[in-house]
Design brief:
The protein has 270 residues and is mostly helical. The protein has two domains: 41 residues, no CATH class; 217 residues, Orthogonal Bundle (MetI-like fold). It is 80% helix and 0% strand. It is built from ten helices and no strands. Helix 3 runs parallel beside helix 6, helix 5 crosses helix 6 and helix 9 runs antiparallel to helix 10.
């Protein structure tokens, strides 16, 4: 067994151990809640059975579970894509212009301190109830870390690398493509990852409040009123699953390809 196979086997074992730990904690919590409060807490097998029924065609709040999931993914994808385009463009401008950075970076930092749910009144006042308000909230939560990390990555490129490239005759385009962007790529990826996580979290919160009538967040808020806690646990499970898929199948795989080729930067947001 080579090193790659050993790492893969170790990852699978660690994942299985984590899953078993979560299930054990879940079962213990359900038992304690029923014992101490006399309240019926959904067991893992109850939630799994409900998920099977939903996947078999049973509707949930007038929609199939796939419709809820795809609606959430569509809203997240739209807002996050806009944030990536604007965030990378603005971050590169700030990174390349010290004057612009001194002017705007404090503003972006202050905006980043505002919790996602605090944007709901502004989104409703400006855009009203609907997908546009949700997209705005996703965008604003994702774009800030992308801007700040992209700018930080460009600004922390060692001056000696820039001077060496200029001495060798590199023009502005070559300097950016061959020196600045590759050296800042690790920091940029950190911003993209943080933006993704923030966008996904605020999407669920927005769907719970804005009232779109479909989506994973809508399932959770509706289950509160109908006391259908199995449905809420199904939605929570899908939220976690999508987050893991985004993290493991995209960002982790991408960073493994990038890390050996480009140096990481030290100044990133955490």
């Amino acid at each position: 067994m080579n090193a790659t196979q050993k790492n893969t086997a170790s990852s699978w074992k660690q994942g299985l151990l984590t899953l078993l730990t979560v299930l054990a904690a879940w079962i213990a919590t359900a038992a304690l809640v029923q014992l101490c409060r006399g309240v019926s807490f959904p067991w893992p097998w109850d939630v799994a059975g409900r998920l099977v029924k939903l996947l078999s065609g049973q509707t949930l709040y007038s929609h199939a579970i796939g419709t809820h999931l795809l609606s959430s993914l569509w809203r997240w994808g739209l807002g996050y894509t806009l944030a990536v385009i604007v965030g990378l463009s603005m971050g590169l401008l700030l990174g390349l212009s010290s004057n612009l950075s001194r002017l705007l970076t404090p503003i972006f930092t202050l905006i980043h301190m505002i919790p996602g749910l605090a944007w709901i009144p502004i989104a409703l006042l400006v855009f009203g109830i609907g997908t546009t308000a949700t997209t705005f909230m996703i965008f604003i939560m994702a774009v800030i870390p992308i801007v700040i990390n992209t700018a930080a990555g460009i600004q922390t490129v060692p001056p000696v690398q820039i001077e060496a490239a200029q001495i060798m005759g590199a023009n502005r385009k070559a300097l950016f493509l061959r020196v600045l962007f590759p050296a800042a790529l690790q920091s940029i990826l950190t911003g993209l990852r943080l933006g993704m996580a923030g966008a996904w979290r605020v999407l669920i919160a927005a769907e719970m409040v804005v009232g779109l009538g479909v989506g994973l967040g809508y399932i959770i808020i509706q289950s509160r009123w109908s006391l259908d806690y199995e449905a809420s646990f199904v939605a929570l499970g899908l939220i976690l699953l999508m987050g893991l898929l985004f993290e493991k199948l995209f960002f982790t795989a991408l960073e493994r390809r990038v890390a050996p080729a480009f140096p990481s930067t030290e100044r990133t947001m955490h």
